[in-house]
Batch of 3 targets.
Target 1
Amino acid sequence: MTKSVSIDIGISAPDREAIAGGLAKLLADSYTLYLKTHNYHWNVTGPMFNTLHLMFETQYTELAAAVDEIAERIRALGHSAPGSYKAYAAMTEIAEEDDEPGAEEMIRRLVAGQETVVRTARSIFPLVDEANDEPTADLLTQRMQVHEKNAWMLRSLLGG
């Protein structure tokens, strides 16, 4: 029999559960974006190859670290972090694709993915603020800053 350990960090059990659920969705979006970005890194071609290959590598490397931070925060709140493609596919708003887009379409899709992650992170904030969960608020702020900047940098390649 596994002994249950009480968690008393100043956030109620229902709030911890709701926040962990929001973070699980953020994890799903982030991992899906990681996979898409890594795929594009491998498969980009054309005149912008070197620029995009390096940019995509920087972005997927950062995402690899981020998914770990998000999962660890879910665990700190006392919940299990999802860790399967099936679970991520059920939660993410980022579409999986089976085609091979050109470089410009890759950029457009990554902009959309970056913006999706920002919206997901932003959607969790009201509950996090109400629960006075400063560590999660800090994590969400950092994630939004990274993804907003990435979206801007990608958009700039499209002239916008």
Note: The chain is about 75% helix and 0% strand.
Target 2
Amino acid sequence: MSDKPIWFSNPDLKTLNALGENNAVSHLGIEITEIGPNFLRGTMPADHRTFQPYGLIHGGANVVLAETLGSVGANMVVNPMECYCVGQEVNANHLRGVRSGKVTGTASLVHAGRTSQVWSIEIKDEEGRLTCISRLTMAVVPHKRN
């Protein structure tokens, strides 16, 4: 993708992070940290909130981070007066365990169509090593007209 902005609108980080208040996003400590011209970036702690029983980040927590970033990004690409985006399919390959610190996810738009979008989300540890890669398909749903 080019560095040309893909966003329909440009909300600030405070507005985007407010979307995660009092839901799974805030419970897991996920925070959106950067809005680039064609990507969205956020972090999640590697701690008791995100661990599985063996002291590693839970694969499901990785998926929540990936779907959060892709979903927020998808809805920033469309005109909210005409439609909204919802998750349709998500998959993740967990490549490296993380026991401490935080992970950073970067969501990039792969395809923007009339009825769907595809996002790629790479999650890395604090040393910049790829720990998980995810692909998210979003349905673009038109608002019902009366």
Note: The longest strand covers residues 130-142.
Target 3
Amino acid sequence: MTAKHQSTDWSALIYEIQTDEKTSEIVVSGRARWALEELIASGSKGCTPIDNPAPRWSGYVHNLRQMDVFIETIHEKHQGPFAGTRARYVLRCRATPKRSGEVAA
């Protein structure tokens, strides 16, 4: 967990997801909620598993995409002893939590 998130309560929360085409509501909890909040906080910079460590970023992104959350994957080259590419995930829709304290049943 990054320093910007002090809470360890990742219970279910309702988010409104807005794209140019539609608005929907999803219920997100656990690591998927953590990943969504990391994506929201990172803005247009996006997240990488290096900057925002978590064991299964690709899995969290996959699960969020299944809920119609629009996340772009940018493949970046990196140097070092294990040079190659890494994924940067960028939220490309608006995700807003419902009223503070409103949780899913």
Note: The chain has a mean pLDDT of 89.
